[in-house]
Amino acid sequence: MAGDDVAEDGARPEALRAAMVEELRQMGALRSDPVERAFRVVPRHLFSPEAPLMESYGVNRSVVVKRDDDGMALSTVSAPSMQANMLEQTDLQAGMRVLEIGSGGVNAAMLAELVGPEGHVTTVDIDADVTERARRGLAESGYDQVRVFRDDAEHGVVEQAPYDRILVTVGVWDIPPAWLDQLAEGGRLIVPLRLQGVMRSIALERADDRLTSRSVHPCGFVPVQGAGAREEHVALLDEDVGLRFDEQQRLDTAGLSEALATPPEERWSGVTIGSQEMIDDLTLWLTTTLPGCGMLTAKQAAVDRGLVGRPARRGVPAVVHGDSFAYRATVRAAEDDRHELGVHGHGPRGAELAEQYVDLMRQWDRQHRHGPGAVIEIHPAHTPDERVNHGFVLDRNHTRVVIFWP
């Protein structure tokens, strides 16, 4: 029985669940009574029985339930904070029909709570181990009304369509036609979409053949498997430093490696941030306005060697041109406990690229920092240019993704 489980410190699931909900409320992840209630009643530890109770109820802890032969995560139970944000984005109402893509089990149980006995929840995953685990957890926790399918989610689940909501819990590069076809007019698709090396959970509403964002939040998910899988391309500039791109790039890797080894050209932006301030919007702005943009990532060893600045440890947008590149590399103290953002440029055109970079940071600071954020539209791949020329366009196999900043 769930009530017989005890954490190492003696806490029981009910107490851990209550503490989790309170922390989620304080951090602003829970913003509506129905979603809060779902978090209070669903026994999430039953869906990851191998994990310690404290791990199952850690607000920012995802639990890996399956890895590949190389140790990479194939399936996880997402962190409560991530699930809360996505469920709030979903805006579920009682009686709705919902398709979940990616079957951890916990999310499906909370979806069932939110739509109630008159609603319908279907979840699909390509992995038989994952769907079997989801079935067991749903049955044990009292949500066996959820329909669980094993299939490639690229095709959706047409037998249960149309859906008022489709909630995707794996990272994707493109949106397959089946998802749009199975989404009701005016329905909402919530999807973790990869955009130039960064991932955002986007709530998209359907109007005819177009999807338009209603909210955009940072997120991180394991990548989708099956027909929709798309690997990122990584160019190593050093054993501890790499450039990641969504698309294959023709790079002068040798020239960029040489540039990395040279002293940087440093430029200061005049843009300041508070010590606890998040700048996710700035990251998205840079990745969707900088030409030739990738993500520079580095191991701690590269930071310790003085090869790159500390921000590269988590990944930062980098503009690349030939044998030169620039990236957000550093901060320096400013007034009132704030810090100014700085850029490093490397290579023959490093100074020029660094100037271009800081100019775009200043533009974001003046025009968009306190605005509504990016609007993202998804159009079919055959959409003519004149319908998508109002923003930055990413062409995918099935869609044209348009990002603009009002």
Automatic annotation (TrEMBL):
<dbReference type="InterPro" id="IPR029063">
    <property type="entry name" value="SAM-dependent_MTases_sf"/>
</dbReference>
<dbReference type="InterPro" id="IPR027573">
    <property type="entry name" value="Methyltran_FxLD"/>
</dbReference>
<keyword id="KW-0489">Methyltransferase</keyword>
<dbReference type="GO" id="GO:0032259">
    <property type="term" value="P:methylation"/>
</dbReference>
<dbReference type="GO" id="GO:0004719">
    <property type="term" value="F:protein-L-isoaspartate (D-aspartate) O-methyltransferase activity"/>
</dbReference>
<keyword id="KW-0963">Cytoplasm</keyword>
<dbReference type="Pfam" id="PF01135">
    <property type="entry name" value="PCMT"/>
</dbReference>
<keyword id="KW-0949">S-adenosyl-L-methionine</keyword>
<comment type="similarity">
    <text>Belongs to the methyltransferase superfamily. L-isoaspartyl/D-aspartyl protein methyltransferase family.</text>
</comment>
<keyword id="KW-0808">Transferase</keyword>
<dbReference type="InterPro" id="IPR000682">
    <property type="entry name" value="PCMT"/>
</dbReference>
<dbReference type="GO" id="GO:0005737">
    <property type="term" value="C:cytoplasm"/>
</dbReference>
<protein>
    <recommendedName>
        <fullName>Protein-L-isoaspartate O-methyltransferase</fullName>
        <ecNumber>2.1.1.77</ecNumber>
    </recommendedName>
</protein>
